[in-house]
Amino acid sequence: MKTKSGFVGSGQALQRAIELNEVAVANNLAAFEWGRHAAHQMSALEALTSPSQVIEFKKRTSIDDLIAHRIGFLTDYQNKEYAKAYEDFVLTVKTKESLLGQTTLTETVAKQLFKLMAYKDEYEVARLHTDKQFLERVKTQFEGDFKVFYHLAPPLCANRNEKGQLIKQKMSRYMLFAFKALSKLKFLRGTSLDLFGRTEERQTERALIQEYKDTVQELLVSLNAQNHSMAVNVAKVPEQIKGFGHVKERHIEAAMIQWQNTLDLFRKSI
């Protein structure tokens, strides 16, 4: 850069001029330095600024794909009949909501009904721990001669603390053999022979499924364009239910209060 006298200014002089100008000093100094690097080491600059990996945005899953994925999961979770009951109910919602040109309620019910129906009981824990993909992931994360132990709180035999909450205990790595046997007994789930299903937690989980279905059926009877958003608010309440044992129990209690409040608002809109 030439000054009025015709001489070329030094780098220090240009930096001083930027500082004296007092306009976006930090940004202009940084731009000046990047410019110098670009003039003398363009290849190195390009290497620094080029992305290390290509980011691909995942296409939003369609409702049909969303439902199909959950049907497949519930088939493995229990059986085809169990998955078919889920599918039929969700399609009933889809048919009714399509009259309004909407899909939000269907998507919400598809997610939340699945969540309630796929509650993680002893049979499901066993199935997931013996899944080949899970075991392969474990092997890829550790090297050498490692051992796997399990920390569980079986409702039928685990000790409880002073608050009455189940305490997890360390189980032998040979628990995997018990898991393999237990996973094959999932057909007992919900039957009179289901010993695990007699606990209060399991009975509550199964009751929630039917209560949710009854609630959604009530929403469909009076569903219209004006109360559609209220219906969605009611249907999405189960998303707040998280965790296991006493943690899940606490979330269920809070969710039930909101469930009733949002349902009351919907009923008043009719």
Quick overview:
The chain has 270 residues and is mainly alpha-helical. The chain has twelve helices and two strands, in the order H-H-H-H-H-H-H-H-E-E-H-H-H-H.
What does this entry look like structurally?
With 270 residues, the protein is mainly alpha-helical. It folds into 3 domains: 1-56, no CATH class; 63-121 and 193-269, no CATH class; 123-188, no CATH class. 61% of the residues lie in helices and 2% in strands. The protein is built from 12 helices and 2 strands. It has a two-stranded antiparallel ribbon with strand order 1-2. The longest helix has 25 residues, at 245-269. The radius of gyration is 30 Å and the shape is extended. Residues 1-8 have low confidence and may be disordered.
Would you spell out the secondary-structure blueprint of this structure?
Blueprint: H1 11-21, H2 25-40, H3 42-49, H4 63-77, H5 80-98, H6 104-117, H7 122-129, H8 132-141, E1 150-152, E2 169-171, H9 175-183, H10 200-221, H11 228-235, H12 245-269
Antiparallel strand pairs: 1-2
